């Protein structure tokens, strides 16, 4: 059963408000989410859970089980995303953030980079407008006010383009986004990669505000307060590619080591702020140093921010990011101050 997975697309199509519907069926939303993302293998699912999901989707249990294919990542050149929470090509990727934490700037940067790679970038305008959307508008090829116009414009695209589509949580709650994705038929081999945002910030307070996602990018207030951007939480942000161990072995192992160190580093920050670095045991000092440098390394200059920062944006290949992270984890940067690593590209740019 190693290659069997839940038919998530069928569930999304037939049960748009899956989180609410699952609760009403007596299922824990986290249980359903873990099955949908692959965090819980299908063979470990309880029969009653699969039966309940089949009843919700009005289908047979067999219809909910498919032979899974490998998931592809979209390499963006944004270190924190590519390394910590890879974007899934053709998947649904969600942002969890309060207003002003940088989610729209990050979306604009992703659009900018994908447009450079001949993606059609489509912004289905959020129902709550804001000044922060200006950068996203500028990075979008196509602006739409409703799902009908989005459908018509995407169907007129040439057959050589993949699509990056962004919209807000209100269309997830209503189920309109899933209906749109099911309706649009692109040429064979072309995909729609969806990005979901929540300009209101309400998503932060809900358990599964978007339902099951392929990639979840959670923004961190503490990083924002220290002006560490993109403020993507290195511990809680994740991707089905990580949970499903579909990354390259080197990437997966480095990612797991990094997440472990960053989790402990974030705990140690409280002790260092209260008692000072010298009070830490030797082993914790080593973890703290490496966590501090990893945190600095994952900051990055954006192309869309050049008019404001007056500094050129940086793009770093995943292979370079893996090599750099490996050097930090192995202690080669322990004697380099974190200040030298903030907003650099590769390590060679900063040391």
UniProtKB/TrEMBL annotation:
Keywords: ATP synthesis, ATP-binding, CF(1), Ion transport, Membrane, Nucleotide-binding, Translocase, Transport. Belongs to the ATPase alpha/beta chains family. InterPro entries: ATPase_alpha/beta_chains, ATPase_F1/V1_b/a_C, P-loop_NTPase. This is F-type H+-transporting ATPase subunit beta. The keyword Mitochondrion does not apply. The lineage of its organism: Bacteria, Bacillati, Bacillota, Bacilli, Bacillales. It is found in: Membrane. Transmembrane segments: none annotated. GO terms for molecular function: ATP binding; proton-transporting ATP synthase activity, rotational mechanism. It comes from the Bacteria. The keyword Thylakoid does not apply. Its main location: membrane. One of its GO terms (cellular component) is proton-transporting ATP synthase complex.
């Amino acid at each position: 059963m190693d290659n069997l997975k839940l038919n998530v697309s069928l569930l999304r199509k037939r049960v748009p408000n899956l989180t609410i519907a699952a609760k009403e069926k007596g299922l824990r939303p986290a249980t359903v989410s873990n099955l949908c993302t692959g965090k819980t293998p299908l063979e470990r699912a309880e029969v009653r859970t699969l039966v309940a999901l089949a009843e919700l989707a009005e289908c047979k249990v067999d219809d909910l089980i498919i032979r899974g294919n490998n998931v592809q990542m979209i390499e963006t050149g944004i270190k924190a995303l590519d390394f910590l929470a890879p974007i899934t090509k053709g998947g649904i990727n969600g942002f969890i953030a309060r207003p002003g934490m940088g989610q729209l700037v990050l979306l604009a940067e992703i659009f900018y980079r994908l447009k450079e790679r001949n993606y059609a970038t489509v912004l289905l305008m959020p129902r709550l407008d804001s000044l922060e959307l200006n950068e996203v508008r500028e990075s979008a090829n196509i602006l739409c006010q409703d799902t009908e116009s989005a459908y018509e414009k995407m169907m007129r695209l040439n057959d050589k383009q993949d699509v990056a589509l962004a919209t807000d949580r209100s269309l997830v709650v209503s189920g309109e986004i899933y209906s749109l994705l099911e309706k649009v038929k692109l040429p064979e081999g072309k995909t729609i990669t969806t990005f979901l945002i929540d300009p209101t910030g309400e998503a932060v307070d809900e358990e599964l505000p978007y339902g099951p996602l392929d990639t979840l990018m959670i923004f961190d207030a503490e990083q924002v307060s220290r002006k560490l951007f993109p403020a993507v939480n290195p511990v809680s942000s994740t991707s089905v590619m990580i949970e499903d161990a579909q990354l390259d072995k080197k990437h997966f192992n480095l990612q797991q080591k990094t997440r472990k160190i960053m989790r402990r580093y974030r705990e140690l920050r409280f002790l260092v702020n209260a008692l000072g670095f010298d009070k830490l045991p030797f082993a914790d000092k080593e973890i703290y140093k490496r966590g501090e440098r990893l945190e600095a390394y994952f900051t990055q200059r954006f192309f869309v921010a050049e008019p404001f920062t007056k500094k050129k944006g940086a793009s770093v290949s995943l292979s370079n990011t893996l090599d750099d992270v490996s050097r930090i984890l192995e202690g080669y940067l322990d004697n380099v101050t974190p200040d030298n690593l903030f907003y650099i590209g590769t390590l060679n740019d900063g040391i």
